Each structure stands twice: as structure tokens, then as C-alpha cells.
Amino acid sequence: MSQEVMIRSRPSSHMRESIGQPGFKSEPKLRDAAGQTPSEVLYRGQAGFRIRPGWSGLDPVDTYAECGRMLGLFMRNLFTGRARTRNPLLIAWIAILGLLMLLLIALVLAGSLSGAHPLAGVLGKLVCFVPPALFGSALLVCATRSLVVSRQE
User: Fold this and answer.
1) How far apart are CA 113 and CA 119, in angstroms?
2) C-alpha of 104 from chain center
3) 79: left (phi > 0), else alpha (psi -120 to 50), else beta?
4) Are 86 and 149 in contact (CB under 8 A)?
5) What is the greatest pairwise CA distance in the chain?
6) What is the pTM of this model?
7) Which regions in the chain score pLDDT beneath 70?
């Protein structure tokens, strides 16, 4: 855990003469133990961390961490219903992918129920195919809401 230290910013050479004069205020900056202000602190996975000053940006660990964070943000926005896009081509792809995922579970259920033992193995197939169906329905909701937003503008 880092300890936060209050240090005063050092005035430049042309401002040193005005320290004793009224009206000059030295703003204290809150810094952590590494000497960074809160606005300068970057963490692994945050956009811009792998290309911070002095680094090449080619570190695979940082690249995977940034990709994972962006994927997590997308998934969170998708399942909370906040994912939107205005690109009509992207809306079409999202809707087609969502329909294909829902069609997959419909075909699996239809194939399972038409056999000699209709309920045999249905639970196992549902466990395997319900998560893609949930993802597909979330994609359809995203596409629908994106269409509504783009039509209102």
C-alpha cells in the first residue's frame, strides 16, 4: 500500500522572486510514494498503460491485459443494456450473430425432442447451449436499442 505524501510544487526560476510577494500561491499536489499525482497513475489494462512514456508498447502481457479490460467493458455494457453503435453495418452483424445464437439453441432443442427418448440428454444440451443463447439475446437487445437510438437522431 502506498503512502500519500503532500509536497509543494517547486516554483520555476522566474517565479522564485515572487514567492515573498502577496498573491503568489503555491498549490500543493497530492502525490503517492512513487511521486505521481492521481491523474498520472495508470494501471495495467487501462488504455494508454502499455504506451506510457519510456515504454515501447510491445509487451504481450500489457497488450493482453488491455485487450481483456476492453472485452470486460464490452461485456459489462452488453449485459447491462448500455452497448450502442450507430454504424448500420455493425448493427446488422450484431443482429445476425444474435439470431444465429438463438437459432442454435432452437435447433438443438428440436433435435432433442424428436428422438426416441425426448428428454434424454436435454439437460446436458441446455447447460451447453443456454449461455450462447443468453449472449445472443443480449446482442439482439443491443441491436434493437441501437436501431432505436439511430432512428431518433
Assistant:
1) 7
2) 27
3) alpha
4) yes
5) 95
6) 0.61
7) 1-41, 115-120
Q: 49 CB contacts (<8 Å, ≥6 apart)? A: 42, 43, 62, 65, 66
Q: What are phi and psi of 143, to 5 degrees?
A: -65, -40
Strand, helix or coil for residue 56:
coil
**Burial environment of residue 6 by CB neighbours within 10 A (0 to 12, 13 to 18, 19 or more):** exposed
Cell 439511430, residue located: 150
Give the pLDDT score at 19: 47
- Rounded (5°) CA angle 18-19-20: 95
Position 15 scores a pLDDT of 44
Spatial CA neighbour of 47 closest among 30, 29, 27, 70: 70
- β-bridge pairing 28-31 and 5-8: antiparallel
Beta bridge partners of 66: none
Hey, is 6 helix, strand or coil? strand
| 84 contacts 145 by C-beta, under 8 angstroms | yes
Q: What is the structure's pLDDT at 60?
A: 92
Q: How far apart are CA 152 and CA 55, in angstroms?
A: 44
